[in-house]
Amino acid sequence: MNSEKLHRDFEKAVAFVNEYQSPIAADLLLKLYAYYKIAQKNYNHPGSKTPLINAFKANALIQAKNVTREEAMKEYIKLVKKEIRNT
């Protein structure tokens, strides 16, 4: 997959998730969060006001720490196609 197509597909997947109306499982949301942050090169501390949520988000980022930006985009797209679009 070329870089331009990857970026375009990633943006479409992000838009789909942002507009999705049904609940999404918490574990899936955390994976999507980690891949999104890596894909955006945003390594800032999670910004929730709830410490427990920050801990879960930080843990998701730690679990995905060895993923490259391109891999994160691909994994995000794959999760959306497999777990959300097929429901």
Automatic annotation (TrEMBL):
Record-level Gene Ontology MF annotations: fatty-acyl-CoA binding
Tree of life domain: Bacteria
SUPFAM superfamilies linked: Acyl-CoA binding protein
Domain ACB: 6-87
Protein name: Acyl-CoA-binding protein
Species: Costertonia aggregata
